[in-house]
Amino acid sequence: MNLTDAINEWFTPCFDKNTQGAVKEMMDLDPKELKDSFYKNLEFGTGGMRGIMGVGNNRINKYALGKSTQGISNYLKQTFAANSLRVVIAYDCRHNSNSLAKVVADVFSANGIQVYLFSGLRPTPELSFAVRYLNCQCGIVLTASHNPPEYNGYKVYWKDGGQIVPPEDQEIINSIEKLTYDQVNFQANEDLIHHINSEVDAAFIESSIVSTSFNTDKIAKENLNIVFTPLHGTAITIIPDALQQAGYSNFHIVEDQAIPNGDFPTVKSPNPEEPEALLMALELAEKVGADIVIGTDPDCDRLGIAVRNIEGQMVLLNGNQSMILMMAFLLEKWKNNNKINSQQFVGSTIVSTPMIIGLANAYGVECKLGLTGFKWIAKMIKDNPALEFIGGGEESFGFMVGDKVRDKDAVAASLLTCELAAQAKAKGSSAYLTLLNLYVEYGFYKEHLISITKKGQEGLIEIDKIMVALRKQPISEIDGKKVIRIEDYKTSIVKRTADNTEDLLLLPKADVLVFYAEDGSKIAVRPSGTEPKIKFYISVNAPLDSIENYTKVEAFLNNKIVNIVSQLQF
Questions:
Q1: Which is catalytic among the residues 145, 208, 430, 521?
Q2: Could you tell me if 379 and 400 are in contact, meaning their C-beta atoms sit under 8 angstroms apart?
Q3: Quick one: which H or E segment has residue 87?
Q4: Residue 366 has pLDDT above 80, yes or no
């Protein structure tokens, strides 16, 4: 369908007058915005469907979500014909999330499907948990994670509690694309919509505590001084109760960020990956003498952590450091409990720190790597039913403990972080010293992310040109060290440059390139699946013989990163 036909479709009777008026206003006053709103359909990416709210095929609105939900309803009926169909729906603090969630519930119920709708905002990991807890075939959460306030989104989960993956994702897209807007049934059957609340909350909290409790002494828990911020998001509905029930009563909430608010008024970006997002929490930490800061994004799947360094200053950990700390703690506890017998695995991603592989291998545990996005780690659990899943993490501040939640989970990650910090403090150490000792044992790995944002259709074209250029003229050296291995996940080919031999990559196809140098340095490049961004993931490493030499080796690695950044001219 061309642009004119796409616009004209919105003047047919199945669209309400207010919507048609908004389209007409764009036609008269903002042709550029009109084009961007209609030139394509929103697509499912690594995090589902996400976009700017407004009218048009390329926007999040009642009709886009209604059409998607109708397509999913049709697919559910085809796939689970003999079953009594059930879906669960959650939503976050964003503008229109509650009303859009009701639209989704209406369409499912209009198709004869039992709907379990949370009566208020809830964290995304609770939705993942609820899919299996309520024995549903599908789950939907209305969220745009940490995107700006004008965004919203629609994440689809399948019966295993994980986000949709092949083949379901493409089959669902095909089901949606067959539809026209006038085939969407918005006429709710209210008898099929059931509001859920405290029962699922209690089960979710109990599951989170059980999966993260490792015999931490009661006094050690009480002695850990915690600052928590939900960054105006959904975590406020669960994490304070979870901390209290787990025995962590000594915590302080950043009150100005405790009230859910889709405008996120105290931060430029409600993303704990951005250091600025945790400034208010760090200020409170100094005021109360906290040991640790935990901050979650609006839908409570990402976790930012700050701890005190050797000098007693609060420092922010990056996602790779947090993952290594939590994974090392889990592996040590499993080892001490004699639970490791070569039938376990951990999961991570091809753009995360390679340190995770050495850590897992040291415990005799396989480390499986997937594409970016926690849906691939969840798929590992589904694909390996004979193996026990210990935990999974990725560089973008996500971690998952066990298999009760099949997505990154800042609730369990917060509890686990408090466990490891409380136990370290009780021994006269700290989370920070624990990390440095891991560097001494496994090598000092340091990562850096370059994220370049583009705008609209033109931006996507620019990003594509960068990827084309890197394939035509691949990176041959990283900070003066020869590239010895190139992985191209779009062609599924790995090339060894020394002898030009090639092998096939076994992961699904994706627009990702990874370059490995002879000294272990690594550059991964990928366009974002949910935003108009291209990301460069840099990893460097060096031996660390003692904590006393930490500063010297860090300076060496920082210099390598500076050299690599200057090498990348995009």
A1: 145
A2: no
A3: strand 86-91
A4: yes
State whether residue 378 is helix, strand or coil. Answer: helix
Six-digit token string for 192? 């099929």
User: Which strands, in side-by-side order, build the sheet including 226-229?
Assistant: 251-253, 226-229, 292-296, 303-308, 314-316
Q: Output the pTM of the full model.
A: 0.95
Alpha carbon distance 371, 534 (integer Å): 15
Sign, CA torsion 271/272/274/276:
positive
What does the alpha-carbon distance between residue 456 and residue 33 come to, in Å, rounded to a whole number?
Answer: 10
**Spatial distance between the Cα atoms of 84 and 18, rounded to a whole number of angstroms:** 37
Hunting for tokens 């007058």 — which residue is that?
Answer: 17
- Compute how many other C-beta atoms are within 10 angstroms of the C-beta atom of residue 187: 10
Which range has the worst mean pLDDT, 8-17, 46-55, 62-71, 557-566? 46-55
Whole-number Å distance between alpha carbons of 347 and 384? 12
Nearest-5° Cα angle at 93, 50 to 381 = 60
CATH of domain 203-442: 3.40.120.10
The residue assigned the tokens 């699922």 is 200
CATH for 40-196, options being 2.60.40.10, 3.40.120.10, 3.30.2130.10, 3.90.79.10: 3.40.120.10
Is the per-residue pLDDT at 36 higher than 70?
A: yes
Domains 40-196 and 444-567 share a fold: no
Name the 3-class secondary structure at 303: strand
**Active site (annotated) includes residue 145:** yes
Compute the distance between CA of residue 357 and CA of residue 334 in angstroms, rounded to an integer.
17
Q: Give yes or no for a contact between 277 and 269, defined as CB atoms under 8 angstroms apart.
A: yes
Give the model's pLDDT for residue 569: 74
Domain-wise residue ranges, the chain: 40-196, 203-442, 444-567
d(CA 277, CA 288): 19
For domain 444-567, the CATH architecture is 2-Layer Sandwich (3.30)
What is the average per-residue pLDDT within 171-181?
91
Decide if 323 contacts 399 (C-beta within 8 A). yes
For residue 543, the surrounding DSSP H or E stretch is none
Q: Which two tokens stand for residue 48?
A: 């589902």
What's the CA gap between 549 and 11, in Å, rounded? 68
Q: Which residues contact 14 (CB under 8 A, 6 or more apart)?
A: 181, 182, 184
The position carrying tokens 């090639």 is 502
Q: How far is CA 540 from CA 139, 353, 396, 480, 560, in A?
A: 39, 9, 17, 13, 7
User: For residues 392, 395, 397 and 402, what is the CA-based torsion angle, rounded to 10 degrees?
Assistant: 0
What is the C-alpha to C-alpha distance for residues 80 and 61, in angstroms, rounded to an integer? 28
User: Could you tell me which of 255, 208, 262 has the C-alpha nearest to residue 236?
Assistant: 255
